[in-house]
Amino acid sequence: MSRPTVIYEPPALRHIHPVAALRRLRQFRDLFITLSLHRINVRYKQSRLGILWAVIQPLAMMVVFTLMFTLVRANPGGSVPFPLFAYAALVPWTMFSSGLSAASAALTSHASLLTKVAFPREILPLTYIVAALVDFVLSSAVLFGLMLWFSVTPSWTAMWALPAILLLVAFLIGLALLLAAMQVRYRDVGLGMPLLLQVWLFATPVLYTLAAVKSALPEPLYLLYTINPLVGIVDTFRRAIILHQSPDYFALGISAAVAMLLLPAAYLYFKYVELTVADTV
Predict the structure, then answer these.
(1) Has residue 278 got a pLDDT over 70?
(2) 71: which of 3, 37, 144, 254 lies 20 to 30 Å off by Cα?
(3) What is the pLDDT of residue 110?
């Protein structure tokens, strides 16, 4: 009776089958749901303020920025009160920054689990993104409360917020998978994450409008600026909710193109790193 032959080969892209990997991911949906609920439940379990932390961060940043712009007597929001102007952009930004910061470290922070249990590794960063989405919903509730306070009513343009958030989720998943895989091999990714997010905040139209950047920069620099996917996403969300404006279609199109290109490329790279993650992490 002949024995089966096992051939060991170094990891290669030809060993990766994305469609089969997605089908296998579907088979582990119960694990994904369980870990996501666990992530949400323990996120603020031992804190006194609990889920209030989901809105404290954007509210605190809004207060700081409001005080800063009050002192310099500037209001980039024009007729819109600056606290509402800033908070409307901080809601998607906070979801992105908190989700990316946690998801990018998902593999390295669960090293013992990766070496003992076989499951699709992308589940780990995805659960952190689900937790960030829950925080986004809570922050959005506060946003609508502020709109009532400042007597700003939504209009039909609010429908543009949905594609903006879908693009944000797609971009966040792609970047989180990419950085989570890179951090397994290069721990510098985790060390540089706070600096990256700090710089990225000021490179995104949170405290200012995209129109102001467009009028201030020459066209080549403006085109380079819009390569940042968060430019079109954050600007569209704020325009849709409180400014009652249609999006800048060029900036939103760039955001969509970058997100759609990054997501499959990042997933392929993640599955490639996954082949040896247990040996490396």
Answers:
(1) no
(2) 144
(3) 76
